[in-house]
Design goal:
Length: about 450
């Protein structure tokens, strides 16, 4: 098998190149890393050039994106591979065993911020394309790589770019690896993503913090008020109480329900992996139904009052919370934001100032399981892994995917390479070396099959 021997010969270099990318601290949320963002984009642009792609960095009002193309004559199919080179902040740094941007391989794992999300997965496709073009230089396939630097800050500038360049980016298939397989040695294809709407709530009751003896009993307390408002956002059945919240939710079909119940998914192990013993949530749904197919509302952070050591007798004048909702089709993020805002304002007691700020959004999506590209992807996975992939959804979000569906009208294939246990967004993020190499192989194999389809 020509692909396999090529890959075997180039393993070390494929790893080294990824480690070089992982050394660049491309944290999109932190303005201090602006220059690193550009360095990461330049690194990728250089690698694409080496492969003979035309390769460009496009500036955006935020971080640059990299667009690389390999065009062939005639009417060959076009595959657009999307990924992101930006990563989440690495803090708290003290919880890492070694510095997050000094990647190393330990016990078969590549450990570094971004190893799994998403540098390792997107780089596997770059090396997959390299292998394909080395072994099949005439492969009748147009390839476009679009690698952005703002996914972790909700891709604000990417959708406008895709829309403005829709002829150039026109593709039959959009291929993405930015998610987790069903388990080790359980390859999967993801067919649904949740969306998100992210808000900040500020509560203000007085123009300064007050002595809790002198004022306690006479004035509202911003933290007490906010806590009551938050508590009112769920009922006893675990449902979100925001009026209209569920109106546009697509109920899962009996058929999908049966398929999800068949998946080898172990609730206890899933919870045990993260030290959790109870699993509260919306009544009437299994654990994966709740994560994958139902919308949720969670407080992501809360603040106010005295948080120092010891005690301080004070009534908080101000309190704040970050609240986000994960959404499912056909909920519209902006619409849900409006419903949540109105509900929070309605919950505010008299004499209390409440402000609800909209931070960012991402739309949910599902892809059709019958799309021919998905079938081809299943065959490619089987050829490499020796088993057919499971079809899964995820509770996470990739905001631009719905734009690819709508604007490019392409079939989206989400080929998972990571694992749920990769600690993405957390200290000691890692990516299994085996998954990296198999990911490269699967990518090459899939591109080969798409070329000859
Ligand atoms: N790769 C993740 C999305 C993901 C998470 C897929 C878990 C599969 C399993 C992506 O990088 C991510 O973190 N997305 C953010 C989007 C947000 C910042 C708008 C998310 O889901 O929180
Ligand atoms: Mn990601
Ligand atoms: Mn992420």
């Amino acid at each position: 098998m020509p692909l396999e021997s090529y890959l075997a010969q180039h393993r070390q270099r494929h790893l080294d190149e990824l480690l070089d990318l992982l050394r660049i601290p491309s944290v999109s949320a932190d303005p201090q890393h602006k220059a690193d963002m550009r360095r990461a984009a330049e690194y990728l642009e250089g690698r694409f050039r080496e492969l003979g792609f035309t390769s460009e960095i496009h500036d955006t009002p935020g971080h640059p994106l990299v667009l690389a193309e390999r065009r062939v004559a005639g009417d060959a199919p076009t595959v657009l591979i999307y990924g992101h080179y930006d990563v989440q902040p690495a803090d708290p740094l003290e919880l890492w065993d070694r510095p997050p941007f000094e990647p190393r391989v330990e016990d078969g794992q590549i450990v570094a911020r971004g190893a799994s999300d998403d540098k390792g997965q997107v780089y596997a496709h770059i090396k997959g394309a390299e292998a394909l073009l080395d072994q099949y230089p005439d492969a009748p396939l147009n390839l476009i790589f679009l690698v952005e630097g703002e996914e972790e800050v909700s891709s604000t500038n990417l959708a406008p770019f895709v829309t403005a360049n829709k002829e150039r980016l026109a593709a039959d298939v959009v291929l993405i690896s930015d998610g987790a397989m069903l388990g080790p040695d359980k390859p999967s294809l993801t067919y649904g993503l949740r969306g998100i709407t992210y808000t900040e709530v500020q509560v203000r009751v007085a123009d300064r913090d007050l002595h809790s003896g002198a004022y306690g009993g006479a004035v509202p307390n911003a933290i007490n008020v906010l806590a009551r408002m938050i508590a009112a956002l769920h009922d006893d059945q675990g449902r979100v109480t925001v009026p209209g919240f569920y109106d546009k939710v697509q109920a899962i079909s009996e058929q999908e329900r049966a398929a999800l119940a068949e998946l080898p998914f172990d609730d206890e192990q899933f919870l045990g992996n993260v030290g959790v013993t109870a699993s509260p949530g919306e009544e009437g749904y299994s654990l994966i139904e709740r994560i994958w197919t139902r919308p949720t509302l969670d407080v992501n952070g809360i603040g106010g009052g005295f948080q120092g050591e010891g005690s301080k007798t004070v009534i908080a004048a101000k309190a704040m919370a970050k609240i986000s909702c994960r959404l499912v089709s056909d909920q519209e993020p902006v619409e849900i934001f409006g419903l949540l805002r109105d509900h929070l304002l309605a919950l505010a007691p008299e004499g209390v100032e409440v402000e609800v700020i909209h931070l960012n959004d991402g739309r949910p999506c599902v892809v059709s399981l019958d799309a021919p590209a998905l079938v081809t992807a299943g065959d490619a996975v089987e050829a490499v892994w020796g088993k057919r992939p499971a079809f899964v959804r995820t509770g996470g979000s990739i905001p631009v995917v719905s734009t690819f569906q709508e604007v490019l009208n392409a079939d989206v294939v989400m080929l998972d390479m990571g694992l749920e246990t990769d600690r993405v967004h957390a200290p000691n993020e890692h990516f299994a070396l085996d998954n990296y190499y198999r990911g490269i192989h699967t990518s090459a194999e899939l591109l080969r099959r798409l070329a000859s389809r």
